[in-house]
What we know:
Arc Repressor Mutant, subunit A; three-stranded antiparallel beta sheet; disordered C terminus
Amino acid sequence: MIYRYPTIFELFTIPMPPTPFNATKSGYQLCVRLTPAAKSLAMQELNLKSAMSGFLANKLQKLLMLSSHRRLLLSKIVHLGPHLGLSPNFRSRLCNDHPDKFKIVGTSYGMALELVHWDPELAVPLKSPPVNRGLIVDRPLKFKQLNLRKGLNLKRRHRDFLMKFNELPDICPYNTSLDDFPKSSLQAEKRACGVVREVLGMMVEKRTLIDHLTHFRKEFGLPNKLRAMIVRHPELFYVSLKGMRDSVFLVEGFDDKGVLLEKDESLVIRDQLMALVAEGKRIRREKRKARINGTILDDCDNNDNVEVEDGDYDDGDYDDGFENLFDSEDSDLEYDFHDDDNESSMLYANGGNAVFWTGDDNGDSEPW
């Protein structure tokens, strides 16, 4: 694996320390370390995590403020940890570094994170995104309009439902609970959509798995048919079916071409790491072509002093899936809502040429 990523790892040798068994022998030990470029990225990520400690603590505090009992099991928060930008050791470091915000307590179900201080400045829901109607004169519209992304066509009955839903007053998910509204009412669904919107707004990539949200149905007061509710509101959420599990995206966090409007700094470092990986693969391809043509290229990974037998590693194309590790989960699907009384909605595949996030007619844009 080390030889597959010459821009990430480099080999070097150190003298072998004398021991009673090899006191009269001299030799060298083969060691591995990060390249200067990879080491610089690692230091940037470490400094970023330290600087964002307070920001990440605010995310956990807001999650606790959304819960009904102001307490969440750590075993459930782990599912959202990577999407929130939390480090793998957040349970031992971040949760204990801010005793003024929350604390770890023991419950009959396991260790949980409990809210210590309610911050009214954090209990503010996300602002509604501005709507650009493309009017020359800003004046009230004569007819009601529904703000949907391009290329999304809904049945008349579904559009009427969403218009009626948007006419309801905004409900703050922090100051209300599920018991404040009748079950299966539009007000309860309005609050549930607000909770999901707040949680997705905390995510680094404004997306997560629907299965992860179902872990918090009881704590956040979400309906049992959570997926059906999310699919029912395409003006707020976008559901992708790529992979074994469905993902939900926050629509307002992306532009018409599916690009994040606000990119997190950790994503910038990740993109730089992927660029290093791609550069290493380019170097390996050039070496392979040079070996086939009988020429010699300079060793770009500074490993000239390391002697390795030809059979120690395979320099051929090896699909390790590293470049697909961070791929977004999307799918060439389109919503199609039926007029039956079933709450859930069906999704139909339209093939590889389907465009459902953008509705450009020139055919140059790719789906999602």
